[in-house]
Amino acid sequence: MAVQLKAAARKDIKAKNLIRKGEIPGIVYGPGRENIKVQISESELLSLVTKAKETTPVHIVVDVNGKNEERDVFIKTVQIHKVTGKIIHIDLYEPDPQKEMKFRVPIKFTGEAEGIKAGGIFDELMRDVDAETLPANIIEEIVFDVSKLKLGESIRVKDLTVPQNVKLLANPESVVAVIKAPRAEEIVSPAAEAVESAEPEAIKAKGKKEEEGQEEEKKS
């Protein structure tokens, strides 16, 4: 479901002056349509970036001289001030609805793997994957339940489930995540612990015998 956003056509005001007034400059652009320079209230924009991802459809209504112009866009770039950490500009991309577009879709893992319960380590090698589809069919994330994944087993791109109208562009054999066995030094057996705990006592006992022998030599 698209996130709603309100904006106004930007007037000939410097970006710094806009930001001081609590308005953030931006641009709506895409193939076959005229670009629109916009200004969006800071609170409205913060609300948008909090709940929307790059794969989230955004329906923007732009006030252009008292008339509303509606566009279906996606967040392309958000510029952040290096010192203040505040948003200073946003690019909103309007794709051609009749042409497929490439995008990166996040991968979300759910559940607790059997391999982790057995002492394994979940190694996540891919957090997102390249995909392609029509703008109307874009998915916001891929969910994968790892509950049945055992020690030593892995997830590959071909194991990810997406709608038929979405094409994953990565190599199907690429490893997304794996349940690795813990490293040898991380595994300490009870026998090894017993040997380690016994060593100091043995050293103490040996040292005591040596001291007693030295005392006897002095007496003789």
UniProtKB/TrEMBL annotation:
Residues 189-220 are annotated as: Disordered. Gene3D superfamilies: Ribosomal protein L25, beta domain, Ribosomal Protein L25, Chain P. CDD domains: Ribosomal_L25_TL5_CTC. One of its GO terms (molecular function) is structural constituent of ribosome. Keywords: Ribonucleoprotein, Ribosomal protein, RNA-binding, rRNA-binding. One of its GO terms (biological process) is translation. Pfam families: Ribosomal_L25p, Ribosomal_TL5_C. Residues 201-220 have a biased composition (Basic and acidic residues). Residues 101-183 form the Large ribosomal subunit protein bL25 beta domain. NCBIfam families: bL25_bact_ctc. This is one of the proteins that binds to the 5S RNA in the ribosome where it forms part of the central protuberance. Part of the 50S ribosomal subunit; part of the 5S rRNA/L5/L18/L25 subcomplex. Contacts the 5S rRNA. Binds to the 5S rRNA independently of L5 and L18. This is Large ribosomal subunit protein bL25. It comes from Mesoaciditoga lauensis. The gene is rplY.
